[in-house]
């Protein structure tokens, strides 16, 4: 019986390693000091080419500071950390780090999770999940806010900024709806964006610069329903965090208001 068990185990375990498109490892302390910045290092090794996005969800009450890393763009949306990896090549490893700070009154346990989604050729989608790990909030590990001044970090900002309209766009027709597919502090060429996200040549690309962030938006529609159809197509391709935006003139509007007051 033992021989049969070993044979079955090999059959089920080996394909997971063969077909996995990435390997993720995370290094951090198992105990995080409340009110202190605790360092987390992430290493992702890719086995395919394409566009990738790494996400981690945290409980309410955390803030983050990030370390600049080549090939990685960090953002903080609500309680989710996003790392956009535009230049993914087979066999390449990308490493980046960040500091998480639980509020000073937090304590107890939480589970750190994460996943990387890889989109190859704009069509094929792979998802690789990070093994869950339990972190205890307590003790004095980590750095106090005043100690962070000596570290090579930059705050990951999420506050909304005033939107500047892209040059050459005529807004005289009123409200327009687009699908925002990415935001990055780096300039991404239109050709590269189309290739990595599988956007057809007839889909209009709009780039809006807001302070030091470039927002990349696909399509431009006079009605919400047309934008929603494009959103559904992109989500099926694996761009799961795409969302609809609305503009009237140079002003960005809440989507529901734009739908009801056109």
Characterize the largest beta sheet: strand count, sense, and whether it forms a barrel.
5 strands, antiparallel
Overall 3D geometry? Answer: globular
Number of domains: 2
**Order of secondary-structure elements:** HEEEEEEEEEEEEEEHEEHEEH
Kindly identify the CATH topology of the largest domain. Answer: Immunoglobulin-like
Helix content: 10-25%
The stretches of 5 or more residues where confidence is low (pLDDT under 50) are 1-19, 157-173
In spatial order, strands of the major sheet run 1-3-8-5-13
Distance between the first and last residues' Cα: 71 Å
Structure description:
With 262 residues, the protein is of the alpha+beta class. The protein has 2 domains: 2-155, Immunoglobulin-like (Sandwich); 175-260, 2-Layer Sandwich (Alpha-Beta Plaits). The protein is 17% helix and 43% strand. The chain is built from 4 helices and 18 strands. The strands form 4 sheets. It has a 5-stranded antiparallel beta sheet with strand order 1-3-8-5-13, with no helix packed on it. A 5-stranded antiparallel beta sheet has the order 6-7-4-10-11, with no helix packed on it. It has a 5-stranded antiparallel beta sheet with strand order 15-16-14-17-18.
List keywords for this structure.
262 residues, disordered N terminus, 17% helix, Immunoglobulin-like, 5-stranded antiparallel β-sheet, 18 strands, Alpha-Beta Plaits, single chain, alpha+beta
Summarize the structure.
With 262 residues, the chain is α+β, with helices and mostly antiparallel strands. 17% of the residues lie in helices and 43% in strands.
């Amino acid at each position: 019986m033992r021989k049969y068990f070993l044979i079955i185990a090999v059959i089920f375990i080996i394909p997971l390693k063969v077909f996995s498109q990435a390997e993720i490892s995370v290094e951090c302390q198992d105990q995080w000091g409340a009110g202190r910045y605790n360092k987390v290092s992430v290493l992702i090794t890719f086995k395919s080419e394409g566009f990738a996005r790494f996400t981690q969800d945290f409980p309410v009450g955390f803030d983050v500071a990030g370390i600049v890393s080549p090939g990685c763009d960090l953002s903080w949306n609500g309680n989710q950390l996003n790392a956009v990896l535009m230049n993914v090549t087979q066999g390449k490893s990308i490493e980046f780090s960040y500091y998480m700070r639980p509020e000073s009154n937090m304590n107890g346990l939480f589970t750190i999770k994460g996943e990387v989604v890889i989109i190859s050729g704009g069509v094929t989608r792979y998802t690789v999940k990070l093994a869950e790990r339990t972190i205890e909030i307590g003790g004095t590990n980590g750095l106090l806010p005043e100690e962070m001044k000596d570290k090579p970090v930059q705050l990951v900002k999420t506050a909304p900024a005033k939107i500047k309209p892209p040059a050459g766009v005529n807004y005289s027709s009123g409200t327009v709806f687009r699908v925002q597919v990415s935001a990055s502090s780096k300039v991404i060429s239109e050709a590269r964006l189309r290739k990595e996200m599988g956007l057809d040549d007839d889909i209009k690309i709009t780039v809006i610069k807001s302070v030091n962030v470039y927002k990349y938006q696909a399509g431009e529609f006079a009605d919400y329903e047309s934008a929603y159809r494009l959103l559904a197509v992109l989500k099926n391709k694996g761009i799961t965090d795409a969302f609809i935006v609305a503009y009237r003139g140079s002003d960005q509007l809440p989507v529901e208001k734009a739908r009801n007051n056109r």
